[in-house]
Write a structure and sequence with these properties.
Helices cover 22% and strands 34% of the residues. By secondary structure, it is α+β, with helices and mostly antiparallel strands. It has two domains: 41 residues, no CATH class; 135 residues, tt1808, chain A (Alpha-Beta Complex), CATH 3.90.1570. The strands form three sheets. A seven-stranded mixed beta sheet has the order 1-3-2-6-5-9-8, with helices on one face. A six-stranded mixed beta sheet has the order 4-7-10-11-12-13. Strands 14-15 form a two-stranded antiparallel ribbon. A hairpin with a 4-residue loop joins strand 8 and strand 9. The longest helix has 17 residues. The radius of gyration is 17 Å and the shape is globular.
């Protein structure tokens, strides 16, 4: 396959799925693949990176003796019904893993985490969640705000129903119900200073 070259003048371009995967192999940057459109990923703030690091530190401890494994933002999720790939901020897969190690693609996430920013919040809450909901393995979708001690959990009830729980306040406990896991809000937001 000939090398795919990203146009210099844009952060978006179109490609086939195969061209996208080939391009990702050689690119130092990460791109989402949105129904044929290759889109540069937004960079994370210091607070975003702190929350993401806190998630990974917590998961490294609490998931050790479980059939679940955490994945960082370097792992793509394939959404076949929408011909799209996204890099979530974190994911957990439980049971038998369905992962393409060569391309860093996880096919069966159990829980997906997104850390919200002003530029991504509407998409993360809307169309991206609509896409993720098509994954048969997904049991819970969790959104973490950067500007408040606030975590929203969306737990699947049945194919068309999701139950939403909002956890707010530094002294609260966040419950990831699909894993029967409890996390202290203060641990999620360690090193994050809110005004």
């Amino acid at each position: 396959m000939a090398a795919l070259h990203k146009p210099e003048s844009t952060e978006r371009f179109f490609a086939t799925r195969e061209e996208y995967l080939f391009y990702e192999e050689t690119s130092p940057e990460k791109y989402d693949y949105f129904m044929g459109e290759v889109v540069a990923r937004a960079g994370g703030s210091g607070d975003h990176n702190s929350i993401e690091g806190n998630l990974m530190g917590i998961f490294a401890n609490v998931l050790q003796k479980t059939p679940c494994r955490p994945f960082t933002t370097n792992t793509k999720i394939w959404i076949p019904q929408r011909n799209s790939f996204f890099y979530p901020d974190a994911a957990i897969a439980c049971g038998d893993l369905d992962i393409d190690k060569k391309n860093g693609i996880l096919h069966n996430p159990t829980v997906i985490f997104e850390i919200l920013s002003d530029s991504t919040e509407a998409f993360d809450r809307g169309q991206k969640f609509d896409f993720y909901r098509t994954l048969p393995s997904l049991k819970e979708y969790i959104l973490l705000r950067q500007d408040a001690y606030s975590v929203a959990s969306f737990l699947i009830i049945d194919k068309n129903s999701w139950h939403t729980t909002l956890f707010e306040g530094i002294d609260k406990e966040v419950v990831i119900r699909s894993l029967d896991l409890k996390i202290q809000m203060k641990d999620l937001y360690r090193y994050v200073e809110l005004a």
